[in-house]
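User: Please fill in residues for this 216-position structure.
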């Protein structure tokens, strides 16, 4: 008798004794509550279209040769599908580094926009180095831009000789403000990407005398 009373007091037994319409109403209420909870959970989850990734971009228009600082860059949130491959994500990654070319405000900044080994290798091939030189005629530098192909030429007692053929221009950098040198106007600095042997020869020639470049 006690066992039957205990079994009768169980919640599901009382539920089963309800009329069918009452049980159906309760089931609909439970289902509605479950759907409401599910809707809240879905609303709190980030939608696939709202996903963003950090991309480092220029905070303003920047000129070639700019030494990047905190005021020059900002981290923007981009959709993953639009984020360029190789884009940097943190201002610390570019602190003090030089831009190889002009960058517009909002444009992503990656390793290939900066003077460095990555850009030298892309321009000059595996193992290439970026060698700085100032053409004997500063006006020649105005004809150059990143990606230009030039021959590096040096004079000598036996006439001009080609030190490097089809060197890739990595960057054309304006002279630093107040730059000191033998000339009042040292002219722009041209960086060319060269294999190791040619890089050594060109660097030595710039120490011994003037060199110039001819456009390909």
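Assistant: Residues filled in for all 216 positions:
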């Amino acid at each position: 008798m006690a066992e039957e009373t205990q079994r009768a007091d169980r919640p599901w037994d009382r539920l089963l004794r309800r009329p069918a319409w009452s049980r159906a109403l309760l089931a609909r209420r439970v289902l509605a509550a479950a759907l409401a909870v599910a809707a809240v959970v879905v609303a709190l989850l980030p939608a696939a279209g709202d996903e963003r990734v950090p991309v480092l971009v220029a905070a303003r228009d920047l000129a070639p040769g700019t030494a990047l600082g905190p005021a020059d860059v900002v981290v923007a949130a981009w959709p993953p599908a639009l984020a360029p491959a190789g884009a940097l994500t943190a201002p610390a990654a570019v602190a003090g580094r030089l831009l190889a070319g002009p960058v517009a405000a909002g444009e992503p900044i990656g390793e290939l926009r900066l003077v460095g080994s990555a850009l030298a290798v892309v321009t000059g091939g595996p193992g290439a180095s970026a060698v700085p030189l100032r053409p004997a005629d500063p006006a020649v530098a105005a004809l150059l831009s990143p990606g230009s192909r030039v021959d590096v030429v040096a004079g000598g007692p036996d006439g001009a000789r080609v030190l490097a053929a089809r060197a890739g221009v990595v960057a054309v950098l304006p002279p630093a403000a107040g730059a000191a040198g033998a000339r009042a106007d040292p002219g722009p600095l041209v960086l060319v990407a060269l294999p190791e042997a040619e890089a050594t020869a060109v660097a030595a020639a710039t120490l011994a005398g003037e060199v110039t470049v001819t456009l390909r």
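For context: The beta strands are 53-58, 73-78, 129-133, 149-154, 161-173, 189-194, 211-215.
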